[in-house]
Amino acid sequence: MRHRLTACVMASGLLGSTGSRLPNELALLVFDQLLDDRETLCTLARTCRGMQHLAEERIYRTIELLSVKDLQAIIQAFTFRHERVRAVQTLKILYQYRPGDLNGSEEGRSEFNECVAHMVNLREWHIESPYDNFHWEMEGGHGWVDRDMVRFRSALEAACVDGPKEAERIAAERRIGKAIERTVGLALLEHLTIHSHGAHEDFWDLDGFDCLFRHPTLRYIHVSCISFPATELSSLASHIKTTPLTTLVFDECELEPKSLLSILRTPARLKHLTLGENVFNVKESRRVDPKLSKNAGASLEALAAVAHSLESLTHLDPGWRTDLSAHVLRSIRPAGEGLRNFHSLKYLECDTNSFLHQATIMNRDLAPPNLETLRLRRHWEVAVDFWDQTPAVDHYTALPSLTTLELSQSSFTWFELSSPSYICQADRLRNRHASAYKLYKADINLKLMIEMHRDPNLIPPYLHGELVPVVQCMYDASSVGFHRHISYAVPAVSRRRPELPRYAPDPDFDPPVPSSLTTSSEDNDSDAEEPTGPAPETDQLGERDIQRITAQTRFALRQLKIKFIRQRRERRASSESELSFAEELEAEEDWESVDDLDEDEDMDLDLELDEAEFDSDLNEHQALAALYGQQGGLIVGDYLDSEYYSDSDGLEPDEALWGGGYGQTSGHGQNSGHGQTSGHGQTSVEDVD
């Protein structure tokens, strides 16, 4: 409060003349309106000391480091004025892996890390090791673990120990009308994300980082690739129900029931929990080991610590990797009360082989009593996919509070499970709708989602700039409905080219399915009269329904896949238009030498790495051709500005979309042409001339 009053006094004396003064509130609003205009803020900072103080509060509020090249400029700025360190509220350490830059950067990183330990107003902190993605064995990877991570840990430990003591002193001083400045760094931290690795493998041991779960102000924690001990954490025993943590995300971690119990005892009211076990990082240093489901009783006991407050729960279980019949629904009954005391739990997400599904969903009396949404997951490598076969719904109709059942099928852009001809094959669609009808009679709505990945090689944890999977609904029973007149006449395939919207750069562009994609009565060659009267309730679908749903699905998948292309272009455009942080600081002060980021060079390299990940043997244009098919009609150049469909006569709609070129699909998981696939989920790419 004292700091805010000082700012108001300074503002009122700056923005005005001898005869007129701008009100304090309006003066501060002027600076707040310039929050995203750092160039103007830097200009204001050079006018006078008062302006400099107010402008720098906003200039240094958010720091995002993509390269170690910025470090010397920022360290120099911090050294020149310590108030700049106090101004930082959001810090993102996102150093990119470029050996030429990282070599010899240990000293600069150490200096900057000392500054981080004094950021007393830091609220949000995001840390990513530049040596992640299996670069931990490279030169410098050990240094990150032994120096950078050790310094981060000591700063967090100091905040845990000294932060509460300082908070008590500040409260006592306020009661007698005094104010003192904060001196403990990270004592106000609320949001923390850490993606790192160990010294010799992709996983790092918790060790002293148990301080994360003792921090007095942290409300959100997201950590990845941590290996937790198999024993309880004694250091947390004195902090039961003392922390304000509300969201906890474990991402690709090796979890153990006993240490998990110690952690879940510390929050006073945890609301959102993700138990992400090691599902994908199983090739380099670890094997598949679903520890929580192996000991369902102990795992449920650990979860019981947050039964009074938990609202959403997600479990990502690697068990499907070793289960040859992962699609088979099984039931187990461990000792205890399961999730029956989780009265606040409204959302549950897991695989069908998860202990949450087998022990609680499959036992009605152990299920959460007020569960509203259940999302079941299935990976593309599981032999039976959700498009082909929905699980037996009787177990879900037995849950009295359930209103929505979501089946989430994962796939990637050029795989058959992303093909509308496969998703909407007539028998699959009719069986799906019949299952939805059974759920509908129990007041449960069925949704089938697709979790679209860009390619099978991009795995979590997803780092800065990586294209994360997109989840989108492909079938919503409430939208399709169960009242209709059934017509089994086969409509003629219209040869009119649909008038679809062209590619638009608007990131929020999400047009509805055009009417030209639906089958009208004019397309029906049958002379049968249209039925009249109210449509009866039925679980059947007619030919027109099949064609309409297929057309809508095709269009939705096109838009979904285009999003991946759009994200790459938006990232390129934003990188080319923004100054580096060092360049912004240089505009404020005339330093003799500042090592600026070469944005163009760095972005070009980033895109090269991105394209190599997408397909090691295809350039960008060829990869997009593989994605859509040469006769799919999307001509990809600098812009997606051509017609959606080709003029290829004699091709059925699905053939025009998926066949006749790269990525042509025939059969379940069998591709012909480049990008040939053999087996469900196994892809090999041939060279392209």
TrEMBL record:
Chain intervals with Polar residues compositional bias: 679-689
Domain F-box stretches: 21-63
Protein name: F-box domain-containing protein
UniProt-annotated stretches for the region Disordered: 499-545, 573-594, 644-689
Pfam family, one: F-box-like
Biased composition (Gly residues): 658-678
Domain of life where this protein originates: Eukaryota
Bias (Acidic residues) ranges: 581-594, 644-655
